[in-house]
Each structure stands twice: as structure tokens, then as C-alpha cells.
Amino acid sequence: MDEKRNADGLTEAEFLKAYRPGDYERPSVTVDVLLLRMKRDLSCLQTLLIRRRNHPFLGCWALPGGFIEMKESAYESACRELKEETGIDGIYLEQLYTMNQPDRDPRMRVIDIAYTGLIPYDEQKEATAGDDAEDAGWFDIRFTKDQIILTEPERNVRIEYHLTEKSFRNGIIAVRNYVPEAIGEERLAFDHSEIVLEGLMKLRNKVLLSDCAFNLVPKEFTLPDLQKAYEVILGTELYKANFRDKMASKVEPLHYVAKPISGSRVAGVYKYKEQ
User: Among 3, 144, 164, 195, whose CB has the most other CB atoms within 10 angstroms?
Assistant: First the structure.
């Protein structure tokens, strides 16, 4: 069967041989990881930030990440960058969003693929700065309808953003969204504040529709601690009876008790029931 030829009479092999990628401007592609865990006392979520060792945004706190290498996927790059910059690997990762504003990186046109990573609260992995990270630390997150505050008491760092509601037109629909505006001198590098906001909002919505919250608790847990994790993510208290009814089909008892982190009385221990 004859090979197909284009308008110039070229086969695909001939076309590819003559193709010159350098004739077209091409953006670079990076990955960044919003890594989340519950604080040990279940009082809040925490995220891992690194302090940048080099320009641009020298000395600013940022999400771990970097450029995708030619022979790796975005997921492989996210895993590699996370291990190189923080020493953490082998965790749950999910693609979050593609950051693509033309001016998001002062060096050149860079498109960023953001990921969310979740760590159980019994795996309190300490971060070790490496590669192009000068320092790394876990920051407490306070997330309300009008602000995001990231704090690291040991380093005396506070990064605060006010959330302004804005409306964007998408076809005939007006979509309401939030834009983070920095308060004070400390701020995250690049557009990482937007990644943090997007990740927290998506997690808050997703826990209502999926079982992703179980990635933030140990393999064995009490229901009071599981409820506390949901309350931290959602930013609101939940009714005990309603919560247990909703979880009944998702968990199975292990027939022993333990003292919850979030309570004083012992409670039954459960595990996630694979669906």
C-alpha cells in the first residue's frame, strides 16, 4: 500500500527528516509539588516549602520542583525533584493544575505542571534541603474564606495572603474565583501562592466526592482522628453521628482500641476498606 503524502509530496518519514524544531519558539516545562500532611497534633494541615538558593526569587520560600528532563514524564520529574530537594519519596502524588500565564517566570516562557502530594500523619518525614534548595521546612497552614497564612515558628517565618473574590467570564457563565494578594514582605516565589490556593480548594472539594482523605491518615486509625482530619480539611466541625454514617461503608473495624490523638477516651481502631 502506498504511503500517504502531504501537499508537498512528502511521506511522514521524509517530513520528519526535514522538520526543524528550532524554527519555532518553544516554552520550557517545569513541575512543582504542593506536599500536604496533617500536623502531628491534628490541629492543621502543613505544607513543605524550600528556600531558593539561586535567582530568580533568591531567598524566597517556594514549593519544591524544577525543570522536566527530556526523557522523563511530568510525574517522574515531580518524584525526582521532590527527592532531590527534600529527600522525600514514595508518596501519593496527583496532578493538580497547569500554570501557564506568560509572565509567571522572569527567565523565559515556562509552563508549570503542579502536583499535590499527601502524606499520612504517622509518617512525619523530616525535610532535608538538597540540590538548589538552601533550606526546607514544614509550614502550618491556616486557610479561611478570605486568607491563607503559612507559618514556621522555629524559623520565625510568616507568609500571609488576602483572598480577593473575582468573577471571570467562561462562555456565557460567570465563574467566581479567588486571587491571593500578598500582605507583608514575605511571599512565595513565582505563582506558588496560586498553586497553594488551588490545591487547598481542590482538596476541600474532593474529600466530599472521593476517599482521598485516607491518604492523610495512617493505615490504622480511630474514627475521632479521621473525623478531625476531615474537619481540618473542610474548615468546619462535623456532626459525629452523620460522619460515622457516611464512613460506615468505607472503613472496617480491627477489633481493638487505642487512644485518639484528638481525644481523651479510647476508641475503636479501623482501617480503610478498599472499594
Answer: 195
Q: What is the pLDDT of residues 154-176, one digit of tens each?
A: 999 999 999 999 888 889 998 88
- Phi, psi of 94, deg, nearest 5: -140, 135
Domain with residue 233: its CATH number is: 1.10.10.10
Residue 87 in any domain: the answer is yes
CATH number for the domain that contains residue 121: 3.90.79.10
Q: Is residue 213 part of a domain?
A: no
Residue 112 shares a structural domain with residue 132: yes
The tens digit of pLDDT for each residue in 38-85 reads 999 999 999 999 999 999 999 999 999 999 999 999 999 999 988 888
Report how far apart, in Å, the C-alpha atoms of 18 and of each of 5, 12, 27, 189 are: 14, 10, 22, 41
Three-point CA angle 19, 20, 22, nearest 5°: 155
Cβ atoms within 10 Å, residue 121: 21
Identify the band that residue 138 occupies on the pLDDT scale cut at 50, 70 and 90. Answer: very high
Whether 212 is covered by a domain: the verdict is no
Share the mean pLDDT of the chain: 92
Distance CA 109, CA 3 (A): 38
Domain residue limits at 197: 28-206
How far is the C-alpha of 9 from the C-alpha of 5, rounded, in Å?
5
Is 169 among the domain residues?
yes
| pLDDT: which is higher, 228 or 2 | 228
Helix axes 240-247, 223-234, angle to 10 degrees: 100
